[in-house]
Amino acid sequence: MDRIEISKANVLKGSVSIPPDKSISHRAILFSSIAKGKSFVKNILRAGDIDATLEACRSLGVSIEDHGDHVIIHGKGLHGLSEPANIIDCGNSGTTLRLISGILAAHPFFSVLTGDESLRKRPMARIIEPLSLMGADIKARGGNQFPPLGIRGNQLKPITYTMPIASAQVKSSLLLAGLFTDGITEITEPVQSRDHSEKMLSFLGADITVKDMQITVRGGKDLRASEISVPGDFSSAAFFIIAALMIPSSEITLKKVGINPTRTGLLTILQQMGARIEVTNIHDVSGESVANISCTGMDRLQAVHIKKEMIPSLIDEVPILCVISALADGTTTIRGAEELRVKESDRIASMASELRKMGVTIEEYPDGISIQGPADLRGATVDSYGDHRIAMALAIAALAAEGTTTIRGCSAVNISFPGFFDAIRSIVR
Ligand code: S3P
Fold first, then answer.
1. What is the pTM of this model?
2. How far is the CA of 200 from the centre of ligand 1 (A)?
3. How far is the CA of 401 from the centre of ligand 1 (A)?
4. Among residues 21, 89, 316, 346, which one is catalytic?
5. With respect to CATH, is domain 22-157+167-180 assigned 3.65.10.10?
6. Which CATH architecture best describes the domain 3-20+231-427?
7. Strand 227-229 with 3-7, pairing
């Protein structure tokens, strides 16, 4: 049965091994597939979303040797992919579908991209419109809005484009498309989103420049096959950072976690809430910053107000931030977060309804949520809505809730963190 029971924990101690970064793993596979020659991707994430990207690239004729925690990718160069014999199933992964669209829009063949029930409800006009301005021929369901997408590749032309929303997936899709043009593509973001694509493209030798919120890429230059090491995923580490903070006397260390500043808005917010978090041994791995993170349990944190400008740097951490907010002193508000409504589930609605079942007073807004703390969390039967980050956030809430919590749809964690429940068991004392 796809459910798990979790009881209140007295204290959490020890070290958790955090899985490799999902965003960087996707990019390492996709970019190596269009680089020239043999790339090694070390410490790659093994999880549902990454399987989707590996299979998608294989179906485009890329040979990928699977050695478990590392893969060897025989890149085809910028124009070497071949027409897939079947539709490409991106599963639950928006990153796979949106990034690969930017590549396929420039290849002279026909491809169809689809996904599971959740992905088929997610908005795609945000990539279809700018890619079409570049000359792409893309059609999609619901008046060019939702997967499946049918793409007939074309010679693309560069564009200058200001993105209406901050989205690393949209930005990356356009940068990838820009690689195949014979000019300079210039993209401006409203607020900076994660910059793993810019960093990795630069690491692989692309002609890319970044100035504040503006990124330019000059097309036509081959990417170099390389060795890429993937750091631990900050978004996976976030669940254990919060778990440690919310249970007094806990002490947790997380090693080799990516701390790219475009991802670590949660650390800034937690510090504002009064948390004690130590970041040590900061070093560079394949162009990304990595560190160890240690957290100590606190008696009580303070509520905060989180504004729109902060959202991109903690976009995937909002569900777990809702959990710590429920235990903080005062009312926490999160606004300008309407993007949360179009993730793997409507994450505002999912967290509001399930935390209410656990005894939290919550108000929902179209663009956010307010959470009244401190709540006396109580065990309940809650639902993940098939969303990995909702399943994990509720599991962490369960550690602080009186009695036992049953989480339905717990296997969703396999999308990004297959060993999640074992990791919890290993630190409960
Ligand atoms: C991702 C970007 C973010 C994030 C997603 C992964 C990426 O999505 O929520 O989990 O790897 O580029 P958006 O770009 O849609 O905000």
1. 0.98
2. 16
3. 30
4. 316
5. yes
6. Alpha-beta prism (3.65)
7. unpaired
